[in-house]
Amino acid sequence: MSGLYWSVTFLDLVNSLEKLNKDDIVAYLKRNQHSSGGFSPCDGHDPHLLYSLSAIQIAVTFDVLNEIECDKLIDYIVALQKEDGSFAGDCWGEIDTRFSFCAVAALSLLKALDRIDQEKAVSFVISCMNYDGGFGCLPGTESHAGQIYCCVGFLSILNRLHMINVDLLGWWLSERQLPSGGLNGRPEKLQDVCYSWWVIASLKMIGKLEWIDMEKLRDYIISCQDEETGGFSDRPGNMPDPFHTLFAFTGLSLIKSYPEKIKEVNPVFCMPQYVIDRIGVKPQLL
Q: pLDDT of 184-205, one tens digit each?
């Protein structure tokens, strides 16, 4: 399901969505929605919040929410909230700030944010903030760019960005740029083109995008394109895949490279901005 979302979003951003068969995609969505309301990643697997968000993003992009059972899906997501405000990913109970983001992003797209305890949800995410301004997956865990994107996006959707120390967080995020121009997810790690999304989207949401060298980042992203297939990999010379291809292009969109070829992407939902405008969702940006 997430692989389909990455492909749908990429193709829409480069004006090629018509290359996919809409009827086949709707059939796939309907086939993988369970009686609980949640979506599984593929046939024969259990439902999970991660894939439920991907399914919603696909349905919203194609404007086919009427084809899935939204009321049951909303009930499924709401039931995953725990007493402390956190969200489990599925019935097995793993807790992670990723799931807090997935829950509010999904409910925002479904216009059902009023169904959860927002104050408890915010309290849990804020409890995962660290001394360096970043966020981890649970209270007391290491800051990571992917988790930061999830927590900042969560707070953006709920209009709580004022609770972040944006200068401290902006410093931590800008320190992720390496001499190659690429970005890593945490200190002492290698650069990876996917952080062109997680880091840059976070900087965009808090109004600190100019704190990195966008020209060097652009050059690094372009160096990750495979000359034979056209896809993008994590680092130059590695195998390309849809995940890194999408996040290479969303990074390029955010730094406004090749605007004549790549549509504007929303930094919170990782969907084309025109889609977010069409449904009237307005996350907070600083």
A: 999 999 999 999 999 999 999 9
